[in-house]
Give the backbone structure.
Amino acid sequence: MAVNVGVIGVGMIGQDHVRRLTTVLSGSAVVAVTDVSTERAQSVADSVPGARVHATGQDLIHDNAVDAVVVASWGPTHEDYVLACIAAGKPVFCEKPLATTQEACLRIVDAEAAHGRRLVQVGFMRRYDPAYCALKAVVDSGAIGTPLLVHSVHRNPSVPAHYTGDMLINDTAVHDIDLVRWLLRDEVVAASVLTPRRNSRGGALPDPLLMILEMAGGALVDVELSVNIAYGYDIRGEVVGETGTAALAEGNPVVVKREGAFSGRVPGDWRERFLRAYDIEFQEWLGAAAQGGATGPSAWDGYAATAVTDAGLAALRTGTRTAVPLRERPALYASPS
Ligand code: NAP
C-alpha cells in the first residue's frame, strides 16, 4: 500500500523531493503540501493529482490522510515540525539540519527516546551514495586494516549570494562530518579549523577552509572546504588504513580521448553528483515509513553533527582546537545507524 506523504516547505529541495516521490519512486503518493508561500504550495499541488494545500505545517501533520511527513523548510523551523510529528506518532524525514542548535536537537532526541521507537530520519544522503557505500564496505571488511586517516574534499564551483562564512561549516562541512562518523562508526571529539589564503572569487568568505576532526578512536580527518572553485562540484574521499588505502574513484562512465588529451565530466552541482543517493535514501525512508518507523541517519546523528559544527564554528572564530562535548547516547540509538 502506498505511503501518503505530506511535504512541508516546497522550495528548491522540497520540490525535488515531490518530483522524486511522485515520478521516480514506487510506494508513495504526495497527498498534501504547505509552504509559507501559499502561491508556491498551490503551484506545486497543481502538478500533483490529489494533493491538497494546508495553511500551516502543523495542519498538514495533523491531517489524517497524511501517513508520513517530509520537512524541507528553512532549518530554524525544523524543530517544531519534527516534535509535532513525534507527538502525532508519524514517521518524518527531516532535511539537514535536524535543528539549528544542540539544545533543539536534544529536545527531539528526548522526545523520540520517550516515544520509545524511531520515527525520525535526517537527510544525510551521502550514506546512500553507491560510491561511499563501496568505500565503507572496504573499510568494514578490514581489507586496509584499522583506519588511521581520512582525507575528505568538498568543492563547490560557486555559492549563492546569501551564503555566509558560517555556512562553510554548518551547511557544507556538515555532510563530511556525518559521513566520517558513519564511515568510521565513531564520534568526533575535537575540531580545529585552519584558514589559508582566501580565494579572491569568494569575497569576504573564509574560503577555502581546512578542518581537522579528531575521532574518539584516535583517527584524524582532514576536510578541505572550497566553495568557489569554478571548475565543478568535486567530492573526494580517501581512507588510509594500517595496510592499505581506499578512495572514491572518479565517477565518469565515459572518458573522451581526443587531440592528445583525455577528459571526463565533473558534476555541475550536488544534485547531479548525489542524484542516485537521494533516490535510494527516499526509497529506504518509504520502506521504513510503510512499517510506521524510521531507519538511516537518526536524530542522534543530527544532534552529533550539530555539536561538531558548533565546535567547528568556535574553532574558526578562536583559532583554537575545540572539544566536542556529547551527551550520553540514549539506548534507542545504541547501535550505529
Ligand atoms: P529553499 O529553497 O529556501 O526552500 C525552503 C522553503 O520552505 C521555501 O519555500 C520557504 O519559503 C519555505 N518555508 C520557510 N519557512 C517555512 C515554514 N515555517 N513552513 C513552511 N514552509 C516554510 O531552501 P532549500 O535549499 O530547499 O533548503 C531547505 C532545507 O533543505 C534546508 O534545511 C537545507 O539545509 C536542506 N537542504 C539539504 C540538502 C542536502 O544535500 N541534503 C540540499 C539542499 C537543501 P520562503 O522562501 O518564502 O521563506
About this structure: Residues 8-14, 34-37, 40, 57, 72-75, 77, 95-96, 123, 125, 270 surround NAP (CB under 6 Å).
